[in-house]
Design goal:
This protein is mainly alpha-helical. Helix content is 75%, strand content 0%.
Length: 416
């Protein structure tokens, strides 16, 4: 027990160090945390996923909820509407292209049947909220690009979750209905959005009273957990509900003033103190989740790494093309360059990767192994590309590729 407590303390201090390295170099702290997990897990054999039991999946879900909540709080309602069209164009085109690429690679390189390969495509179709949101905040990305990247990560989490479970259900019952799939997606997103918004307005009425309680700063995060869990129990998207809960908390007064439905003075405002507490909570949860993810990696099958590497390279190449043609021309050049590389996989993919195996799907172990490799390699590639975008000849190449966009330079990525 003493050793465990010692290791926990060391990891927290290491996370502070990694955060400092990220602010100076642009190398994501989550990558370094994963490497620590790989070292103490698959390499040294000091820890295994089985030792964590259910704690690992609970930790993953808590990290996802809080990160989405904080991402919603960080969104400006004024920037949401003009960014919605750009978000949908980039999100849907990237998701469809990624699913197609991964399905093809899964069939022809990994030897999966079409249904398991399509499941792998759904698992890896999105971007990671747990990676994208902290990176966007740490790199000081502002304006439309910030909103697009945050919304994309939240929306694709829903697409991946719903899409995979539709396929798992189809595998049990022997068929897929396109109409029911689209209806299911629309229903879960719309109702989850409404639940998150209504819960947030209710909470804004109660927030002043909650602040008078001891340790009231945690109350909003606890309420978000309630919103997420309740929405999931009802069969809808807890991820979208959590994002919308944060978005409404941060913009509730502005919405009330604009619509006149509620007197804005009756609503509390989400304070900087509460947002600071939220960031500290994210820091702790993110630290232990990505270490756990590293511990869960499988390093004994090089074929999985080859397949994973092909998937990552192909997806990143297509993302550059999509960013070029779907991003609005008034977007600053460095933001477009960042958008082109911001397709890391993470939390949702890691959580979903084990579902086919648990449901007894043929090739479930292969699906899980490839998904974990893609998570690691995609985060690693993003980590490398962020600082490289400022180094010739890479910077020259990106300037030539995205020369038709605005020249403003306001992404805070330090030169190595």
């Amino acid at each position: 027990m003493a050793t465990t407590i010692l290791v926990i303390g060391l990891f927290v201090f290491a996370a502070y160090l990694f955060k400092g390295i990220f602010s100076r170099t642009g190398i994501p702290d989550v990558l370094m945390l994963m490497l620590c997990g790989i070292l103490i897990g698959p390499v040294m054999g000091w820890a295994t996923p089985a030792q964590f039991g259910q704690a690992g999946s609970v930790l993953a879900t808590m990290a996802l909820v809080v990160i989405l909540f904080e991402g919603g709080v960080d969104l400006d309602l004024h920037s949401l509407k003009p960014a919605l069209s750009a978000t949908l164009k980039l999100t849907l085109s990237t998701f469809i292209a990624t699913v197609a690429i991964v399905t093809g690679v899964g069939m022809f390189m990994a030897g999966l049947d079409w249904m398991p390969a399509l499941m792998l495509g759904m698992i890896l179709g999105g971007t990671s909220s747990a990676v994208v949101i902290p990176l966007v905040q740490g790199l000081n990305v502002q304006g439309k690009a910030r909103t697009v990247l945050i919304l994309e990560s939240a929306i694709t989490d829903v697409l991946c979750i719903v899409g995979l479970f539709v396929l798992l259900d189809a595998a049990k019952h022997g068929g897929i209905s396109a109409g029911s799939t689209v209806l299911s997606l629309a229903e879960t997103m719309t109702i989850a959005f409404a639940i998150g918004a209504m819960a947030a307005f209710g909470w804004l009425f109660l927030l002043r009273a909650a602040r008078r309680l001891p340790h009231g700063s945690f109350a909003s995060a606890a309420m978000c957990f309630i919103v997420y869990g309740s929405t999931e129990l009802l069969g809808f998207s807890g991820a979208i509900a959590a994002l919308c809960f944060g978005l409404t908390l941060a913009n509730g007064r502005r919405f009330a003033a604009a619509t006149g439905l509620i007197r804005a003075g009756r609503l509390a405002a989400f304070s900087s103190r509460e947002q600071g507490f939220l960031q500290e909570l994210i820091f702790v949860l993110k630290t232990f989740f990505f270490v756990f993810l590293g511990i869960s990696m499988q390093l004994n099958d090089m074929r999985l790494f080859v397949v994973g590497a092909v998937i990552v390279v192909a997806v990143y190449a297509v993302r550059h093309v999509l960013a070029l043609f779907t991003t609005d021309r008034d977007t600053p050049h460095p933001h477009v360059s960042l958008t082109a590389i911001m397709v890391p996989k993470g939390l949702a993919a890691a959580v979903l990767a084990g579902q086919p195996l648990q449901q007894g799907i043929s090739g479930g172990e292969v699906i899980q192994g490839i998904a974990y490799v893609v998570v690691l390699l995609s985060i690693g590639l993003t980590a490398c590309m962020i600082p490289l975008q400022r180094v010739p000849p890479v910077s020259t190449l990106y300037q030539a590729l995205f020369r038709g966009f605005a020249p403003q330079r306001d992404v805070d990525v330090p030169k190595p």
